[in-house]
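Much of what follows relies on a compact textual record of a protein's fold. An example makes this concrete, so a full record is given next.
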Amino acid sequence: MNLEGRVAFVTGAAQGIGRGIALALAEVGADIAGGDVNLEGMEKTAKEIEALGNKVMALKLDVSDPASVKEAVAKVLEAWQKIDILVNNAGITKDNLIMRMKREDWDRVLRINLDGAFHCIQAILPGMVKQRSGRIINIASVVAQAGNAGQANYIASKAGIIGLTKAVAMEVGSRGITVNAIAPGFIATAMTENLPEQVKQRMLTLIPLGRMGTDKDIAHGVRFLASDEACYITGHVLNINGGMYMQ
């Protein structure tokens, strides 16, 4: 698996799954443009990538703001002339039961998780169409398929990601561009580390492999879908969940 000469644009790459994805792509030769609202964290990830010998660009990026996305993409294109791989990973949660959910929490999650992917795809896709090649990989979630109480906004956003993936795959397949999604299961990240221990133990009982996933488990799936080996896969949702949800 070799991505030398490819440029990858990874959102939410300051920590967690996004950081793991950026490092995994760099390990097989890709140059990385990483974007995050947390620029300090993004710069730390960039130093790790630099240590691998790759070119890297740390970008201040708010995916919910179309102007921020356009500015970041323009910087990458000015410096490196192309973007071959887009990974839409940036996301947040604002959990609550639907009857108690604040409208601003609903809106915020949808703006970042779903609108953010739309903004990035729309900004980067023209270049991929022009070069008649590209890989778009969207990070969804197991709960978008299985459901979960108290996460209506998050689940709606991630179910939307799955639908967006299939729609765009249909639109751009003839241009040599593949569009796929990965649906992670219960992954050990900063987003899950603060869950009560009893919740974690209950979740583990639902996973046949008996453990939480890691950022590397997801990153390796992204790396495969970004590679030439996955050139005949598009519109697909790759479940990486330890058997937590089986279709």
About this structure: The mean pLDDT is 96. Strands lie at 7-11, 31-36, 56-60, 85-88, 134-139, 177-184, 237-240. The first strand starts at residue 7 and ends at 11.
